[in-house]
Amino acid sequence: MSGHSKWSTIKRKKGKADAQKGKIFTKLGREILVASRACGGNTGDFRLKIAIDNAKAQNLPNENIQRAIQKGAGGAEGVVYEELRYEGYAPGGVAVMVDILTDNRNRTAGEIRHIFSKNGGNLGETGSVGWMFADKGQLRISREGLKLSEDDLMLLSLDVGAEDFETDEDGYIVFTAPADMEQVRQALLDKGISITEAVLAPIPQNTVEIADAEQARKVVRLMEMLEDHDDSQGVYANFAFADGLDGEDLG
Is residue 97 domain-shared with residue 213, that is, in the same domain? Predict the structure, then answer.
């Protein structure tokens, strides 16, 4: 699954998560609201439970969490969010997908199209790049406070049903089949493993290598602008940088 976390790794290096905590809180709250509406506020529901856990991991205040659950369970009168996925290409033929929660499909579509075109990409039709990705459960585990060695954590993860295991600068990522995500997550929690993020997200089945620094900057800029859009819930792409570019300033 090489390249799966390229964008998330870059985001963390550039400090995007810390710099935009307010936007992150908004997106987390919106996901809780939508999940709560779908299940009537049942906190035992898988999607809502994951949304709550992710929000807590990002230190979203508990009153914000409860407010979003209650709004969703009550139908969130006056606010109806629609879940969409936009697909397109970044410079260099890089496939990009953007998950959206919006209360105005037409406005968001125009803005996302503009972001693609402004940054040398183009918005495609539904299904134009989706076939290059497969949805996988992803469980992120921090090194901080972890008592197991990397090898022991990997063996434990695979033993409880994970499909794959990778490491990056921030810790470890456990991959699962979508249907097995909650089982693996709960099994790791039962073993005392703290999970900082759990998401079901598309993983590229192959990658496009970028060898030119200027092209790499254009791709990163497009990804940043899509990520920064108020309605964006997640951005995914299939690029990988050639050796040497990881150390470049791609801002």
Answer: yes
